[in-house]
Specification:
Strand content of chain A: 15-25%
Radius of gyration of chain A: 25 Å
CATH class of the largest domain in chain A: Alpha Beta
Distance between the termini of chain B: 29 Å
Family (chain A): Belongs to the PEP-utilizing enzyme family.
Helix content of chain B: 25-40%
Catalytic activity (chain A): L-histidyl-[protein] + phosphoenolpyruvate = N(pros)-phospho-L-histidyl-[protein] + pyruvate
Largest sheet of chain A: 9 strands, mixed
Oligomer: heterodimer
Structural class of chain A: alpha/beta
Keywords (chain A): Cytoplasm, Kinase, Magnesium, Metal-binding, Phosphotransferase system, Sugar transport, Transferase, Transport
Organism (chain A): Actinoplanes siamensis
Protein name (chain A): Phosphoenolpyruvate-protein phosphotransferase
Number of helices of chain B: 3
Number of strands of chain B: 4
Distance between the termini of chain A: 30 Å
CATH class of chain B: Alpha Beta
Shape of chain B: globular
Order of helices and strands of chain B: EHEEHEH
Structural class of chain B: alpha+beta
Radius of gyration of chain B: 12 Å
CATH topology of chain B: Histidine-containing Protein, Chain: A
Helix content of chain A: 40-55%
Chain lengths: 540, 91
């Protein structure tokens, strides 16, 4: 008898398959007396060797060189001779293998934590290695994403970036998490990979592993015990449309792709993106102890610009801070990072980082035929926008814009368009700051729903300012990837939508179903709706 | 005993990639090499965890020691490696 669970659909599509969970870290069992110390040492060494072998296997399979290098470094830690020595000493002192391993890692853990800084952050790696070794000893699956060798639906309490670093999108059919919201890491990952996903789905962890489930990422429904195929059900209508984004009567809404590096450009091309609406430059800066050189930046930006020759590329200057802290900026210790020195605000303390980046963008732009626009994240005042635009022009770049992520900026969209050439609305942060609701807080997922009329109202202010000034106003947050929301955004005056390439065909198809007048009427109805759920029902 | 004192050249210190490169090289040396910072306890240079735990940053002086046949050559090679910026792409 099929039974349903309900959550929030965050990435459209339907898929069915056996459900598997991310294994939790094993708990240490009560200590056992050791009678044969030599055999116990062998057992402990074998477990560590198993962890090393697993990490090396994952390194061999890792698609990215950086990911492979990190995994190999971890393998070296798990296979460390001094660690084994410490384990042997503990066992000879009477500990059993799991406790000896725990204590041996504990010694290094303490040293790392004491050293502070970079090493203190590696404590989590040590804990993970210990959990893996203990899991092997106890005959439990190693913590992390399962690798059963066949396609499956992945269930978890929530997904952290570390869990998903080596997630294989050809094996994972859909994602379901117990907590999380529309802008949580799970949702963002699902859209990037084009996987149907349901978040905030209580009860999913109670489903027995290997049960067949069907996940509907549009309605948020998870049917237990239904569906017997492993296929992904595609919206047939979606695949057929290509070409520029437009309503049924030809009103243009540019469909752009969000990219992080030149690697994402083929996917954008495949989806017939008209350009790049958000080129995130953080990738180059992440996991770096020092700022990337000008030369390195020019090379990375140039790669994307050349691949997008003849098309628009909106590049965003470094968006560091909050959920993306960068080691070289020394941002630790902010009591409330989301409200701290992040985005453009970093330039208050480190103006050189911004000017170097703008110079690198300008140099890369000169060497390509792409139409390069530059925008700043986390702008909240007219002064910030004015200064940023001046810096962009100073660097020799013609088009400067700002992101609208803070309500203060949205309220003054008209004034901002007096000093910059375009606006781009980052709906994830705009939701977070408008509703005073942490993006990572699953319990508040309803507040972060992009259909919230208050959020739509702020978007409407920006759209109206765009219409009045004839300047472009885009949306590059997760809301841009919601097919049902696309006609509403167009009706609110949004002139471009930028999203993960996989979401593009669905949005294109949805836009083509409505005339521009209908879009405007839908926008009015959604704005007037009492709540997000009613707003959503406006578009069926 | 042959000894070399060298300042860490890598921008990120003796962490992550530089540590991995150094430890791999030390493991290939024909003699047992130890590394220490100041008067702290010397640790095996081929132990990734011990080398990381030194917490050596760019400019930190570390002391390499080894004994036996080929010790001098091994130390020269490892000292040169430590002095380089192993975070740089051509490393």
């Amino acid at each position: 008898m099929p039974e349903n669970l309900a959550g929030i659909g965050v990435c459209a599509g339907v898929a069915a398959g056996p459900l598997l969970r991310i294994a939790a870290a094993p708990a240490l069992p009560p200590p056992l007396p050791v009678t044969d110390a030599a055999a116990e040492v062998d057992r402990a060494y074998a477990a560590l060797a198993g962890v090393v072998a697993d990490l090396e296997r994952r390194a061999d399979r890792a698609a990215e060189a950086t990911a492979a290098e990190v995994l190999r470094a971890e393998a070296m830690m798990a296979g460390d001779e001094e660690l084994r020595e410490a384990v042997r000493e503990r066992i000879e002192g009477g500990a059993d293998a799991p406790h000896a391993i725990d204590a041996a890692f504990g010694t290094f853990r303490e040293m790392f934590a004491e050293a502070g800084g970079y090493l203190a952050e590696r404590v989590a790696d040590l804990d993970d290695l210990r959990d893996r070794a203990v899991a092997v000893l106890l005959g439990l699956p190693m913590p992390g994403v399962p690798q059963p060798g066949h396609p499956y639906v992945l269930a978890a309490r929530d997904l952290a970036p570390a869990d998903t670093a080596d997630l294989d999108p050809s094996q994972v059919l859909a994602l379901v998490t117990e907590i999380g919201g529309p802008t949580s890491h799970t949702a963002i990952l699902a859209r990037a990979l084009g996987l149907p996903a349901v978040v905030a789905c209580p009860g999913v962890l109670g489903v027995a592993e290997h049960t067949l489930v069907q996940v509907d990422g549009t309605t948020g429904r998870v049917v237990i015990g239904a569906g017997s195929t492993f296929r992904k059900v595609a919206d047939a209508e979606v695949a057929e449309l290509t070409g520029p984004g437009r309503t049924s009567d030809g009103h243009a809404v540019k469909l752009l792709a969000n990219v992080g590096s030149a690697k994402n450009v083929p996917a954008a091309d495949e989806a017939h993106a008209e350009g790049v609406g958000l080129f995130r430059t953080e990738l180059l800066f992440l996991d770096r102890a020092s700022e990337p050189s000008r030369k390195e930046q020019i090379a990375a930006y140039g790669e994307v610009f050349r691949a997008m020759a003849g098309r628009r590329v909106v590049i965003r200057t470094l968006d560091a801070g909050a959920d993306k802290p960068l080691p070289f900026l020394n941002q630790q210790g902010e009591p409330n990072p989301a409200l701290g020195v992040r985005g453009l605000r970093v330039a208050r303390q480190r103006p050189r980082v911004l000017t170097t980046q703008l110079e690198a963008i300008a140099a890369a732009a000169r060497d390509s035929d792409a139409d390069v626009w530059v925008m700043a994240p986390m702008v909240s005042t007219l002064t910030e926008a004015t200064e940023f635009a001046a810096a962009v022009h100073e660097a020799g770049l013609p088009r400067a814009g700002v992101m609208i992520e803070v309500p203060a900026a949205a309220l003054r969209a008209g004034d901002l368009l007096g000093v910059v050439d375009f606006l781009s609305i980052g709906t994830n942060d705009l939701s977070q700051y408008t509703f005073a609701a942490d993006r990572m807080c699953g319990e508040l997922a309803d507040l972060l729903d992009p259909w919230q009329p208050a959020l739509l109202r702020l978007i409407a202010i920006c759209g109206a300012a765009g219409r009045d000034t004839g300047k472009p106003v885009g949306v590059c947050g997760e809301a841009a990837a919601d097919p049902q929301l696309a006609p509403v955004l167009a009706g609110l005056g949004v002139s471009s939508l930028s999203m993960s390439p996989r979401a593009l065909p669905g949005v294109r198809a949805s836009l083509a179903r409505y005339s521009y007048d209908e879009c405007r009427r839908l926008a009015e109805l959604a704005l007037a709706a009492p709540d997000a759920a009613s707003a959503r029902k406006v578009v069926l | 005993m042959p000894t070399r004192t060298v300042a860490v050249g890598s921008a990120s210190g003796l962490h992550a990639r530089p540590a991995k490169i150094f430890v791999e090289a030390a493991a290939k040396a024909p003699v047992k090499v130890t590394i220490r910072v100041g008067e702290k306890k010397a640790v095996p240079a081929k132990s990734m965890l011990s080398v990381l735990a030194l917490g050596a940053k760019q400019g930190t002086e570390v002391i390499l020691e080894a004994d036996g046949d080929g010790a001098d050559e091994a130390l020269d090679g490892l000292a040169a490696l430590l002095a380089k910026d192993l975070d740089a792409d051509d490393a």
